[in-house]
Amino acid sequence: MDKKISESERITERAWYVVHTFSGFEKKVKATLESKIAAQGLEDKIFNVIVPMRAESEFKDGRRRIVQKKVFPGYVLVDMIVNNNTWYVVRNTQGVTGFVGSEKDPIPLSDEEAQRILTELADGRTDNTLGFKVNDNVRIIDGIFENRLAVIRKIDAAKQRLKVLVEDMPVDLDVSQVEKI
Q: What are phi and psi of 168, to 5 degrees?
């Protein structure tokens, strides 16, 4: 005789889920959840927990510095297979207010949405670590080209340098010499 699985006991396929947290608790939720996963041996059901972050250039107190900004404040992404146990572990992690979706039926991101977000985050860790992207329009705020507009053609995040075009002339600048427009 086959036992019928109730709707609340069903097992889903692996997917990315969006978990809502208290504002400012994203990193704590991630750390706590990763500890629970290891302690309960759920590595085969909960695969990855990320707080989407992007490095951005910020001008403060006369200096440009790189700061990490949350892409989705108040949310954590979890790559998991939802069943009663994994749902309970995530839902009952301190700082979690719930899954995106109904209380008992979380809605996964579509494959396309998840891939787009993960690709954008990967791009943000390489070329966009300074808060700029190739083809961004910027205003030069320091040096002989001050107050002129330019277009970014190349980014060297390690050296914090930009290659820009100013009136069809290539110019090498420090990131502190430009601002986004």
A: 65, 20
- 135: which residues sit within 8 A by CB, 6+ positions away? 151, 152, 153
How far is it, in rounded angstroms, from Cα 170 to Cα 135? Answer: 13
User: Position 178: which residue type?
Assistant: V
DSSP symbols for 128-142: TTTS--TT-EEEE-S
Tokens of 119: 């690709």
Two structure tokens written together for 160 = 């914090």
For the stretch 23-31, contacts whose Cβ atoms lie closer than 8 Å and that sit 24 or more positions apart, written own/partner, are: 23/73, 23/74, 25/95, 26/51, 26/70, 26/73, 26/74, 26/75, 26/76, 27/51, 28/94, 28/95, 29/76, 29/93, 29/94, 29/95, 29/96, 30/76
Confidence of residue 10 (pLDDT cuts 50, 70, 90): low
Interval 161-176: pLDDT, tens = 899 999 999 999 988 8
103 Cβ neighbours under 8 A, 6+ residues apart: none
Write the pLDDT tens digit of every residue in 66-107: 777 888 999 999 999 999 999 999 999 999 999 998 777 899
